[in-house]
């Protein structure tokens, strides 16, 4: 009798609880549905933008950030709030409406955003070599087909096909469309900066031409870095060899280390009193080297070697000649790249003229600061 009474009391309560739960689930679905739809629509737009950038940026020699989707998700609401408050402040100023509280919230949003943004980290950048023209044409056409094909009639199908296209495009650019060897001279201020790439390892050798003009930082940012990324398909440099010191050179190296991941920096040793501006640039470079965990080596004291692969070895050896630059003195260097048992010699930029005047008959060794044999024998693969 008691059990029946308890059952009769609990049965309506059970039905009421189940009804409340079902209503809560339906209410939750009504809130989750628009959020999921917004996220899928955002993902679709982000994939389209990424596919377009995957065609444009590698063709120009610019790296792509892997944090772009996450950054856009976080940045979009903050940007909308910033624009809204800025617009309200603009009209409030025109209409002479008190706007102190708008300025307060605008400053808080700006300070919060600047606080959340960390220092630039180049480890999240990924570089691709220059894609072929067929890839440049095919990817946009496939993207448009995915968005307009009548069989892809749902948002989820569109996102799925766009994601597959993006993944296949990245795989092709990173694994298939990458050069096995690059040996290239990049024109710079009347000379050449030598680029050597083999089996994923990149070496940049500057005989001293980068620091010849005050625009060296811009040249590094808009010429050297894009050329390295387009040619080698990488945002990482294993070795940078610098054969001449100077303020402009130090500033350019700081820009290079900031924009790309440099593992080892081989910089010429120098003696004497540096100018104050040169010393400031040098110590700023050293701070950036410490911050980026770059290994720095001083060359010019003795012979040094860099092994790129079994077929490419680089030998750095000081010459008997010393070069004076402003108040500093540094040894002239000869960098020998042994490529398939053939030597490519690179001399210090300021060593070329003095050596040519002393030994006018030795044209093959001193008339070029970058190579001592024909360029046609070392073409870019």
Structural overview:
Helices cover 52% and strands 22% of the residues. It is α+β, with helices and mostly antiparallel strands and 381 residues long. It has two domains: 51-176, no CATH class; 181-377. Strand 5, helix 6 (216-232) and strand 6 (236-242) form a beta-alpha-beta unit. Helix 1 packs antiparallel against helix 4 (133-148), helix 1 packs across helix 5 and helix 6 (216-232) packs across helix 7 (247-259). It starts with a helix and ends in a 15-residue tail after the last helix.
Q: Which class of secondary structure composition applies to the elements?
A: alpha+beta
Domain count: 2
Percentage of β-strand residues? 15-25%
Topology, number of strands:
13
Number of helices, counting only DSSP H or I runs of 4 residues or more: 10
Task: State the major sheet.
Answer: 6 strands, mixed
Oligomer: single chain
> Percentage of helical residues?
40-55%
Query: What is the overall pLDDT average?
Result: 82
Question: Span from first to last CA?
Answer: 93 Å
Q: Using only CA atoms, what is the Rg?
A: 30 Å
Order of strands in the sheet with most strands: 3-4-5-6-7-9
Low-confidence stretches: 353-381
- Basic shape: elongated
The H-and-E topology, N to C, reads as HEHHEHHEEEHEHEEHEEEEEHH
